[in-house]
Specification:
Length: 240
């Protein structure tokens, strides 16, 4: 965490310190910027979007998008847009947290997840006004419904594709492991992510978003590079 953020747990957070979300940038300018950039990116990435959609259909059929409810801005639930990376009805087969080497992930889905291309579909959520480029990752309703105290301020900013918690937990599947992913997430990860989400609500500004954007780009590039060019053999030796 950055030096100016002095709280080490959700319970320690001084509610009076959470003021960033009240600013002009978050309330007005951020939405205009999101809309303009999302339209530009959507048009520019149409060929990529079409290729991803075709690949998903060939690999595992329809639907192309994964649309599940998440807790939204001002505590209004919404349905996210993401390219489907798991088998159909994956929510009914397993939990809400993706485990390491989760058997529900399709072949194309694995590539999309590792390269973060599944997030491109979120441009539609941004255009609709449900999401922002930068903001707390949209969380399951079962968790947002339980927010209390400082956690409620997470819902005072639009959920986004990336924020402090997304960067900190970019390899979440490796952190929660292959077994009991939901249990591990709830016990060891959720509160830490919420603290970082509160940090975003407290410090949201144009400079904060610009910083998080570049940190995310760098993190995604490293993650994609490792997935595409680095392989681990059975003996644990890295080969490119």
């Amino acid at each position: 965490m950055s030096r100016e953020w002095k709280f080490n747990s959700v319970e320690e957070v001084d509610i009076n310190s959470i003021t960033g979300y009240k600013g002009f940038y978050n309330r007005f300018f951020k939405r205009i910027l999101d809309l303009l950039l999302a339209i530009i990116f959507l048009v520019a990435l149409l060929p990529v979007i079409l290729i991803i959609a075709i690949a998903i259909v060939i690999d595992s059929g329809f639907p192309v998008f994964y649309r599940a409810q998440r807790g939204g801005y001002k505590n209004k639930p919404f349905r996210i847009f993401k390219f489907r990376t798991m088998v159909k009805n994956a929510d009914k087969i397993g939990g809400g947290t993706t485990a390491l080497n989760d058997s529900r992930i399709t072949k194309v889905g694995n590539f999309l997840r590792k390269t973060k291309l599944d997030e491109v579909a979120n441009l539609l959520s941004i255009i609709k006004g449900d999401m922002s480029f930068i903001g707390p990752r949209p969380e399951l309703l079962q968790y947002t419904d339980e927010y209390e105290g400082a956690e409620k301020y997470i819902l005072e900013v639009r959920p986004g594709i990336t924020d402090y918690s997304s960067i900190e937990f970019i390899n979440l599947d490796e952190i929660v492991g292959a077994e009991n992913a939901d249990e591990y997430y709830e016990k060891y990860v959720l509160k830490k992510k919420n603290l970082l989400r509160i940090k975003y609500a407290a410090t949201v500004s144009f400079s904060t978003d610009l910083k998080l954007f570049w940190l995310t780009v760098w993190g995604v590039v490293k993650k994609a590079f490792n997935f595409i060019f680095v392989r681990k053999d059975k003996d644990g030796i890295l080969n490119s």
